[in-house]
Structure formats: C-alpha cells, structure tokens
Amino acid sequence: MPSRSSWPVPYLIGGFSVLPIMEKLLFLPALMMFCRVKSETTNLTGKVLIFRQETDNSFVKIPVRENIYSATVCLRFFSELRIREQTLFSMSTVYNGDCNGLNLMLERGQYKACLNETDISFPGMPHEQSDWNSICGTYDSQRGLIQLWVNGKRSLAKRFIKGGLTGSVETPRVVLGQRSQSFHTDYFNWQKSFMGELTDLHMWDFVLSPCEIQKYMKGSDFPLGNVINWKAINGFTQGGDVIIDDSMQPCAKQDG
User: How sure is the predictor about 176, in pLDDT bands with cuts at 50, 70 and 90?
Assistant: First the structure.
C-alpha cells in the first residue's frame, strides 16, 4: 500500500478540494468517446452514416440556424428493418413532445410524416427493402400542403395547417438515427430508432420545384440545401455507435 505521502495532494480553492489538472484529463478521453462534437464545417461528400444497432443512444445532431416556415428535406437511406416504425429524419422546434416539429418515418414499408403532433400517412409509395431509397418531403406553409416523393414517384399533396414549423426554441435541431422527444436532453426511444445507412441529406427553407426534386432523385445537378448541406454541415454532433464510412460507388469501367 502506498504511503500517505505518495497520494496525490488536492488543491484547495475556496475551501473545496480540487483534483490536479492532470488527473482530470484522464477522464476526458472516455467522455469524448461517447459524444464527439465537430464545431467546424464537415464535408460528408461520398460518406454514409451507419446505424448498425437498435439503440437509444446512437445519433447525429445538426443545429438549424433559425425557425423554419416552408421546407424541403431530401435524403437517401438503406434499411432492412421491417417489424416496427423507424425515424428517417427528426427536427425539434419546441422543448418537449413526441412529434414536436417535422419528422419523416417508415413503418412496415409505409411512409409517414409527422408535423406538430399530427401524423400524415402516404400509402402506396414505392420502397426498396434491400436497396437504396431516395425520399423528399415538402411542406408549403402558405398553402398548407405537404407532399412526399420516393424514388421518383410523388404522392398526392395532403392538406395541413398553414403557418410554418415555428416553435418555442430559438435554434431548432435536426436529429438523425432517433426521434427527438426532448430538446434539452438526449432521451430517445430505441423502438423508433433508425437502423441502416443514411446519406446525402439536404434541407431547404422553401419548396423545391418538381424538376429540382427529380434531379435530386437522379443524383444529377440539383441545388444544394441552404439550411443543411451534406457537403458543408456546421455543428455536427455524433454520439453512441455511429460509423462514418465511404459510400458504395460503382466501380470505374476498365478500358479494353
């Protein structure tokens, strides 16, 4: 047993014992392993996010600079999960609530949107169980219409309330991999988590034209998101078991 003189001597500040700085630094790597924050701009071109388990603590968070009124959200995903609902995209605009902003979900092959605590279903939309799917959701706050596009096919425009996605928080946040249920905490429900791969997320604060959405579906020259741009994401926060990997691109054709 080490002698008393070999024990670390605490510092006293204001009558309280404080561990030496070097001892505190020993705890930082463990904390950083759980939650990795990238405050600089992150370029995810050619990258996919892999959520490989059903968990309540694997997520990616992206802050949004201001409240959103009209919106378009586009992304691509690959998932083989069939037995429950999973959340493809979740944006919080108020402090609490299961559907407190804009959410895009998939449940047993059927797509749904949830805006401000109201569910809207889009039956009959195409879905590839063992391949990539491209999805875009649009919300027109002036006309009160919401519409979905999946793999080039559009849904009927559904009636919804007018007025936008405003809420009680100054800076909304987007969560990938989980359904955002409380703005101040990272409490999530694994039964609504996403399991699979996700890439090419873009968000705009206006409704894209049908031609621009078709360009996104085909991967051609579409306008990059002015709210979230996959090529330049600010304030990227990663927690839990999320892997960033290279996307599977077609091999180059060899001559001869």
Answer: very high
